[in-house]
Amino acid sequence: MARRQSPRRTLLITIVAWTIGLLMFFPIFWTAVAAFKSESDAYSLPQTVLSTPWTFENFGIVQDRSDYFRYVFNTTVIVVLSTLLGLMFAIPAAWSMAFAPTAQSRSSLSGRQWLAIIFSGLVICFLGLYFTDWKPSNALVGFALLLIFVVPGSLWAWSQNTSGTLLWMLSTKMMPPAGALIPIYLIFNRNGLVFKDWGWINLSDYNLIDSFWGMVPLMTLLNLPIIIWMLFTYFKEIPVGILEAARMDGASLWNELFRVLTPMALPGIASTCLLNIILAWNEAFWSLNLTNKYAAPLSFFISEYSSPEGQFWAKLSAASIMAIAPILVIGWFSQKQLVRGLTFGAVK
Amino acid sequence: MGGLPRWHILSGIMATRQAQVLGRWALAPAVTVLAAWSFVPLALTIYFAFLRYNLQDPDNTGWAGFSNFYYFFKDPYFVKDLINTVLLVAGTIVTTVVGGTLLALLLDQPFWGRGIVRLLMISPFFVLPTVSALVWKNLIMHPVFGLFAGIQRFFGSHEPLDWFGRLPLFSVGIVVSWQWLPYAALILLTALQSLDEEQKDASAMDGAGPLSYFRYIVLPHLARPITVVILIETIFLLNTFAEIKVGGIGGIAGNLTYLVFSQLNDATDVGMAAAGGLVAVVLANVVSAFLVRLVGKNLEA
Question: CB burial class (10 A; 0-12, 13-18, 19+) of residue A99?
């Protein structure tokens, strides 16, 4: 039984809650109002909420001046492709960890021993480079690191038991972008680490900076741990008994996966897509650092308005509203998924 | 009945084994790309941190030893930005956790239009960071045309406060808190709603007032969600960047992330930037170690 409340108490709570809710929403509302003002009204003092006449000209001007739809197109490409690519990696991984978990580590070495191997490899290479004073090309160093780090690293990660793998995936999300910015910038740059003239092959025509080829995989990697975790928590809730029953009835693994499991998993996959769309849409660090024209998404589009010439507030407001409206609506529909996805299943 | 059950059991085991093998291969791609993503940039950052490597000065190469770290720590911006980082993270977390708890308690009560208020309250979380920085800076905190200036003038002040100019860190703190308050509130609300109704009734029956009810029932129940909120917000807030860059206060009140960016972007010093990046990595790892342990405990339960 819920406790009964006196109507007066309910009224009081209603007033307080609505006041706070409206206050929280107010900056968005204020932006929306400013978007419909003419530029001179936006600058008039005192500021009025309901200026007349209302105008839609700002939206047209924003489109004409900075080609809003191109940025929407860019954002959509990055968001959709990175979500699809992420699902291609995440669905099998989450399925594997939820339905074919390994309780014991597959390797006879412990995680600590693996880490010791990786880091001693690193130290030996460092000492070798230091004492021979040999300065290899950056590309060579990159590929050497790929060998001495990624191979044992993936072997180690792969040899973990399921909960170990999950936690390791979570920990990759903790990597601050400031720590990865420098190598990623240099790898992406056509004159940087990889994409430059190697003497026998010229890669400097290829450039990952400011291109979808760079942004889409990057965005996938950024959100992959969250997608995997979220799918895992959804898959975990599917009763294994149903799968066993299908198996008992003679369903092949293929049928088990696609006739039985997939229909039950679809709602979870859809929610995961929503969360990933929100996260990718609102990503700003890498977008601001790695794009400036051809693959620039909406966060970059708005940042262009930070150093304007002349009167621009009504236009800034119009641009802002156009940039947040789609994701706001998606966000309203996915509150539950947000809680699940952004607490890694620690709060349900 | 002789052979049939055994055949069923056997096929069950076969399928499981088949699933195990398939499972390994299904996991492999994700593990490989994530391993590449987590190991390669980190390794390269470590490598660059010990190099003399400036993009504007291609002739100056070679090993730098620890001099990148030395100069990074000696940079007057480093101490300032480190303090800013800590202040920004701590201030925002205190604001959002306290405010979020209060909001969650409020929204947990029955009242008219609860769903709509929830939508209004959660909205700031979905606003692009660049948008919220510019909107707050220009429409709300602007010293002449901003809303706050208007309010100050209404109360008779002739010289309204220039928020981003005079109190840059505080202003960014407000913007970031505005964005993260909904997150804390939503998660704590979800946790509150899983609180047992019977416990509420029992405590009311035992004559517990609202304060002791909060102190002895609600707060212990919220302890874990609050920890999760603190840890996750720390990880995201350590990386606050867009608000500072677009707000144009990187030079006067930047944080560590901004400092690394400006080392790469303005000074084009890869070595120094890498050293700074490593400092950020160490800082984030201290926090993430706690979070991973916490989530791991939950995984076993």
Answer: buried
Reported ipTM: 0.85
A68-104+172-342, superfamily in CATH?
MetI-like (1.10.3720.10)
Contact at CB, B238 and A176, closer than 8 angstroms = yes
Q: How many pairs of residues across A and B have Cβ atoms under 8 Å apart? A: 378
List, for residues A83-113, the tens digit of each pLDDT value.
999 999 999 899 888 887 776 666 666 667 7
CATH code of the region B50-300: 1.10.3720.10
> B136 to chain A: which residues are within 8 Å by CB?
27
B62-112 pLDDT tens trace: 778 889 999 999 988 999 999 999 999 999 999 999 999 999 999 988 888
> How far is residue A201's CA from residue A194's CA, in Å, rounded to a whole number?
11
Please tell me the distance from the alpha carbon of residue A153 to that of residue A162, in angstroms, as a whole number: 16
Domain spans in chain A, listed from the N-terminal domain onward:
68-104+172-342, 105-160
Q: Say if the Cβ atoms of A284 and B128 lie within 8 Å.
A: yes
Among the partner-chain residues A130, A176, A330, the one whose CB lies closest to the CB of B257 is: A176
How many CB atoms neighbour CB B66 within 10 A? Answer: 12
Give per-residue pLDDT as tens, B272-296.
Answer: 999 999 999 998 888 888 877 877 7
Torsion of CA B32, B34, B39, B42, to 10 degrees: 160
